[in-house]
Amino acid sequence: MSHETPEPQVAAEPAGAVRPPTVTGMPSGYVYGVTRYADVILEAPFRRQFGDLTATLDGFRIGVTELRAGGGSRTPFVGRFDAVLGARGWGKRNIEIGKTIDGEPISAVRGHEIDMFAAGTTDPYPGIAVEMEWNNKDPFYDRDLLNYQALHREGALAVGVIVTRGPDLQRLIKRTVVNFKGEEKYGESSTHWHKLVPRVNLGGGGECPLLLVGIEPARIEGVDELLRAQEKFNAADDFKLRWRDHYDSWRDAKPVHEQMIAEANAALSTIEDTNAN
């Protein structure tokens, strides 16, 4: 009697793990992640709100000079993003959740202000919330995810959306966009894709379906010039790793490396001058 070897069992991913969306046709120039079928929920019962969001993403652009000037809680292009949603009926919302016993209030918990909220299709709740975390400290993600979790649990929120810097954009501007002191503006400890996704995979947001949107270089006007500068920095980095292939001592190789860095920085200065006019 033959005994067949059973097929190996593939471990299922956690229900809240970030996966690529199954809905097609979302605007290009972004990286997307979803949990708990957030994209499917948006596409069907929240079709109008989903159309508002995708139309806003489709028209969204950031200028190179805005990247240099950007920072803080509300930069001009974040304001533009919110304004486009606002013109479609979205807006800020404070949601208070109260509990009663025999009609007597016993507690009231106020969630933090949601930057952009769209009411549901037939009733105000559950609705859709959108937060853009462009360049805050990464604990702001914890605030957003805890808020989404609480509001979803109480029936006020169907899907939570977080828009942030995508991984390719983070790699690009971390090196090529600096402040007036020459220091990086978009450090690893600030809000970007690789700080957000691990939080969600560890349970951030609870059972609230999430749509994560990462802004990528294709959404930056003038990005080709930044990419050329990045190539110069990468060439300098590669030279530093392989200088022994051509030189006997770092003392001889160092001036070449310094010249390569200077040329990369000069390219960035040219970009700034060009875009300032």
Please characterize this protein's 3D structure:
With about 280 residues, the chain is α/β, with parallel strands linked by helices. The protein is about 45% helix and about 20% strand. The chain has 9 helices and 10 strands. It has helices at about 40-45, 45-60, 65-70, 75-85, 140-155, 165-175, 195-200, 225-240, 250-275, and strands at about 30-35, 60-65, 90-95, 95-100, 105-110, 115-120, 125-135, 155-165, 210-215, 220. Strands 1-9-8-7-6-3 form a 6-stranded mixed sheet, with helices on both faces. A two-stranded parallel sheet has the order 2-10. Strand 7, helix 5 and strand 8 form a beta-alpha-beta unit. Helix 8 runs antiparallel to helix 9 (about 250-275). It is elongated. It starts with about 30 loop residues before the first strand and ends with a helix. Residues about 275 have low confidence and may be disordered.
